[in-house]
Amino acid sequence: MNPQKVMKEGILEKRSNGLLQLWKTKRCVLTEDGLRLYEWRRGGAPGGGSAPGGCSRKAKELRFERMATVDCVEHKRGLIYFTVVMNEGKEIDFRCEQDGTAWNAEIALALVRFKNVLAVQTGRNRHLSQLGSTGEDES
Predict the structure, then answer these.
(1) Model pTM?
(2) 6-132 in CATH: which number?
């Protein structure tokens, strides 16, 4: 992702894909393009190639262009559980603390903004191509 305005930063837990489906803590950065997930180690690993704050430099990117929706919100024991559904049908489960503005709401709103901008651009391009093909702009 290009350097974008950071809309939210903090900690999320992501359910692993393995057999045990353990919850793993991730340092997350929400931007206008999507969500970056960094490995998180409390206190950082001494000399282990971690960035300041105990998170790795390498990020997994969940780009909005590949996201379909944010679903399945459940409130349980002070946590919010939600699922990010990708265009190819893959589901990624997350949970976060219930206090403050919830991550699921922030991600969903950013996704809607992204899709709205994309729809406006697509409509504008379609309109301009129709004007060009009908010759209406030759006055």
Answers:
(1) 0.77
(2) 2.30.29.30
